[in-house]
Design brief:
3-stranded antiparallel beta sheet; A middle domain of Talin 1
Length: 461
Amino acid sequence: MRRRALGAISAAIALTLPWVAVVGATGLLPWVAAVGGLEYQAPRLFRTLSTFWTVILTGLAVLGAAFLLAWAAETAEKDVPQAFAIAVLAVLAVAPEYAVDALYAWNAGVFAGTERGIEAGNLAVANMTGANRILIGIGWAGVALFTIFRRGSSADPAVERRDGFLSDVVILDRQIGLEIVFLLLATLWAFLVPLRGGIDILDMLFLVGLYVCYIAVILRGEVERDTAHVGVPAYLQQFSKASRVATVLVLFAYSGTMIFTAVEPFAHGLESLGESVGIPSFFMIQWIAPLASEAPELIVVVYLVNKARSTAGFNALISSKLNQWTLLIGTLVVVHSLALGRYGVLAFDFKQSAEIWLTAAQSFFAIALLLKFQISVREALTLLVLFLSQVFLEFALIREFVALPVSSTDLLLIYSAIYIVLGVALFVSRRRVFGRLVRRTAGTIGDAMSTGGEQPHSADD
């Protein structure tokens, strides 16, 4: 096992080394040039690389770092609650998305009052909403379908075969009820964000406070020592506690650095390739850049699912959605105010208000699907089709490939209504399940805050 584990770690690190060489040769990180509101300027050596090779090298670095990140999180489960290990993994995996969005929020502050500043504020919201919808529309739906249809799924205890058309389901860990309730609270708050004209201090206080509360609860959870691991995590867990903790920290730091430095040029490279074939830059920033920044998270989840750890994979996706829907939105106003030199609301236009409502509506519907702690093939396909159809229809409208009696903004509002109607119908039909979930979560929070001890495990508490 030792030889195989060391070989796997060496292979993952080897994938990152070409990118390390590029960064080392330039002496610059790709995102440093953008600090202070300057236009993105690639370091000199980056300019000697073709866009294609930049995408290849950074893509390999992201792939290798994602595996290191997943191994670190699995190894950490021996010493900390699994939910906390997954939360750390989720934050690190989506850190590039935070960086890209923070840059737009910063530019909105630096160039406040100008057309460029207004555009930057809109781009911050567009990038954030795109990333959140990708996480559910492709992440949740795609991973559910991959879990059920991959080879070996019959050996996965999370997959349950059922009679009926597209009725097979992925059974989720009931302990994610805490995340579902916190995500619902963040989602309901998000509907209110556009009503005040932008992201403001109230959003920061509520959303960041919500995430801090969530972390405080899961930190008081119990370490699940009966979780069986194989491969690299099993090998690393044999280390002494001091060596194991040091190894986990090094893996987290190295993989986080690789992801943070590689994803932005990866996204810029994809944007350039897209624009070269006629895809609008705004569309690229909303969809291609977030897809690139979400790549580490999706790779990690596919890795976990392929190891028959489907519940851990879904936990990671839900945790990522929670921290993006709280920390990411809540901290944008802080970055914007720092660049502005005083407190200021991160404003955006009505089109971006519609983007936020659509993102919140999609989240509301997706949460309703998970109330019974399972997701079927039919439900996953519904999520995927709704997401893809909206993106393709909007692109077709923007490029004038089709003529519809609605604008692109109207299209966002129509899809928002569809998601809300479907979500309300599910909440009504599953109201008893939802009631038990809320009571159980309240008990979990109460126990964690009062004793820091055992948390309830029965789904019917």
